[in-house]
Design brief:
Elements (H helix, E strand, L loop, with lengths): L14 H8 L12 H9 L3 H66 L2 H28 L1 H10 L3 H15 L11 H26 L7 H9 L4 E2 L37 E2 L21 E4 L2 E4 L2 H7 L13 H8 L4 H16 L2 H40 L2 H12 L17 H8 L11 H35 L22 H4 L6 H19 L8 H13 L18 H5 L5 H14 L22 H18 L5 H5 L2 H30 L25 H19 L4 H27 L3 H6 L2 H9 L16 H16 L13 H26 L3 H8 L11 H31 L6 E2 L10 H17 L5 H8 L2 H12 L5 E2 L1 H19 L6 H16 L5 H10 L6 H9 L11 H10 L1
Parallel strand pairs: 5-6
Antiparallel strand pairs: 1-2, 3-4
Length: 1055
Amino acid sequence: MGIFDGLPVPSDKTYLRDELARIDESWVAARFDSLPHVVHILTSKDRETDVLLLKEQSDVVEEVVDEVVHAYHGGFNKAIQNYSQILRLFSESTEKLGDLKHDLAEAKRSLGTRNKQLHQLWYRSVTLRHIIALLDQIEGIAKVPSRIEKLIADKQFYAAIQVYLQSSLMLEREGLQTVGALQEVRSELTKLRGALFFKILDDLHAHLYNRGEYSSVASSIYERDDDVPTTTAVAASRMGSQPLSRRTRTLKGDSQFGVRGITNGSHRTSSIEEGSSFDEHEEEESVEYDEATVDGQTVKNGTDSKLLSHQLPPWLSDSTPDEFIEAVRKSDDPLHVKYLQTLVQCLCMLGKVAAAGAIICQKLRPTIHEIIISKIKAHVETRNLSKSACSQGDRTVAAGLHFVKGQSEAYRLSKEKPQNGISNSGTHLAVSPVSPLMVPGGKAQAAAKDLLDSILDTTVKIFENHVVIGELLELKASQHDINTPKSLPTDVNWNTDSEASQVTGGYTISFPLTVLQSECQQLICEILRATPEAASADAAAQTAKVAKKAPKKDKRNAPEDGLAFTFRFTDATVTISNQGADLIRQGWGKRASHSSQEGYGSAAVLPEQGMYLAASIYRPVLQFTDKITSMLPKKHFQLVNDGLLTFTENFVKDHLLPTMFVDYRKGVQQAISSAAAFRPRAHTTTYTPTVEKGRPVLQGLLAIYLLAKEVLGWAQAMPKFATDLVKYVQTFLERTFERCRTSYMEAVLEKLSYRLIGRHDIEKLMRLDPASACLPGLLGHSVSHSEAVGSDVELCELFLSLPSIKQDNLIRDDNKLILLASLSDSLEYVADSIERLGQAVPHAATQAEGNSRNQATSPRNLTSFADEYRKLATDCLKVLRVEMQLETVFHLQEMKNREYLEDDDAEEPDDFVISLTSHITRRDEGMAPFISGEKRNYVFGGICGIAANASIKALADMRSINLFGVQQICRNTIALEQAMGAIPYIDGENVQQNLDRVRTYFELLNMPFEALLAFIAEHDQIFTPTEYSNLLKVNVPGRDTPTDAQSRLSEILSH
């Protein structure tokens, strides 16, 4: 763009813009230099043309200037005219101001002459207005009583107190004190103050126990929450001298009645304080209202709940706005907390805090007692309704469902009669010190836990309200005298004690906590059927310690405090202020008479009562203590530490555990000492692997397992005492093991089989036997084939090299053998069960054992007992296997030093073989119900190997044998093979292979010498050189044996 583009050139002279564009920009430079242009003209060839061009450009510029001047000329003229007009107006204003000053001076001189008369008129008008205002006030005050009554009827207590205080101030003004017509109004206001106090106190009492109009929303929230929500309470003082709980938030602003405001923090779920057992769960989360109704409007959860919390509560709708109301409106506290704050503020404004505190203290214990009784009655009604509903249906099915619900899966006992004809539940009832209702997870335990959970949950909700009130009163007591009505002169009759407990009429946070725990403790004692002496020595000592510091009790409280419970002392030492005593005498005390303390009626809910219910009480009390601790300021923690949980733990430690040990020790003794404890019983001919289907576990061991399972059930219910309970189980298992060991020794004492399995070499060889893989202690033990074959041969050689076995060296009583079989299976069953139970032992017990400083002296865990039981079970099976092998050797040793010169073909086996096979069959049938198939294979599976080796080895000691003798021996092997084949799970192929080897060996005696040598040359590995040599040594009638037979045999075997 050019420098002349902005000039106001008319549209009909646009050519001027083009002409201007042609002018060189050097003509418009800031520092114009004419010399170049002069030189250019002088040196130009056509000077006239250049001069003419310059003139034309000059004409264009002049014409443009004319257009510009013409365009802006009107504006210049108008601006000059406006400026002239402004000068004229300023001149006129100056003249008028001078005239005004002159007029004011004249007015001042005129008024000065009438000053006194004007002052008199003004004073008269002020007096008249004051008189009119007083008359209006008198008329308004006369209507105050009816207005206050209406506000009280509408439960607008804060508005009623505002009206009352304003009216009281008016009546104290100068000029109204002498009005006689107002004396009646004063009297009515005095009466209304008392009525208003009792109305507020009634409403406060109802809301403290969640029975008020504004308690419903909070109650519905609590019922949906697993954790108890904490309520934001009043804030700390400005100096921060009061140690308040985590629930307390900072107040903002000072109201005209001395209230520091209400919290702005949200309503949060309680978080456990330091020192609690649930530190890892510390978190805060907002509680959303599902639905709340205020002023007839329903507001749903979510964002609308925040809008609801900032609306003016309905009970303040008629109040005059002030700082307190503004603080309540801005607060995020739940509705019921705001209402409690309003009621406390009302009491402070009335100056009746001490009286209210005294009456609340007076009513606390009877009210809690009544609430507990009502909860128990509600449980009774619920149970009766459920019973009536069940009775309309199938009674059998309903009973079955009720049984399943009443007992947990881990402790349920089968009510069906097992196939062996012996009832497990009957065994359990015979030795258990508690009834089926009382076992861990039984109906009585579940009922006690449900009842106590419900009552303690209600107690926590009540105490939450008391914490709100207590912290509010403590805060206000630290700020000013809360027993002097606001804006009223101090009455000398009111309590002015500086101590918080005196200012609040004896009401502090510790008082309701003590009473609540005391009542809950009495209920627990009733459930446990505990006597007054059931409180531990520690608790009694603490009671005495605090009682020494407290004032002497009133004698009229003595009957109630006859039971020496841990928490009785606090509420008995409350000092009631003058106000409280007066008001109690006026009638509140009559309504708050002590409720009967004869009991709570828990027996109507619980199927059975007794100290064993402490197991179901312990966990609810622990949870109750954690919730209470999370609400309390730190300065009150000691009340929790010395409270209900301490009593419960002391009761369990000092009373339940010793009683439990004695009771279960008697049960164990009864189980293992009865005549039928170790008597094998079976009503089936085959083995079943589960007890429910008839596994014939010895009744003594089955009872011990059930008792151990029950005691560990108590440990799971009370993890803190799991270490002691596990020690009890270990003691019981140790005594049972000793009894089992005694039964085992009675069967095997002085028997050869017992001595043999104790030898290290034989024990090592038996471990290498592949059949031992089925033994309880050797499961998963792998052995190579070469080791297995070598061990079997060595064992046979050891057994056959023993001196002649006598009958006294063997266990001849089949009942003892059956007992060993049954004992082995029962021990294995108990070992497996103990190992499973040991995995479920609470972490506290295992950790306590792991942290033991001296591991050598620390108690053994349950796994070590399971290993001992398995080892004894393995010994029983080893004895049975060796016993059957020795029995075989005992019978077959009759083949030695005998002549097998038979006259005819054998039709029957030898008598000793018949005896052996009958022993095998009889003992197998006797053991069949008591041991599994693989263990029967282990017990009887070693017979064939030892029989084959014994038969072959017996040839060396035979004097003579003929053809019929060989047939007799073959007939013996057939009989033995048939007997062994009748045993299930026996390896028939192995049996046939061993006995075929015997038949092959003896049939070689029927061959001529040369044919025998040819066979040996071809099959030199089937038998050993010694066994081949014995074939030539024995006398066989009709066989020609050369004198060099042995040398020729040796020559063949050497190649």
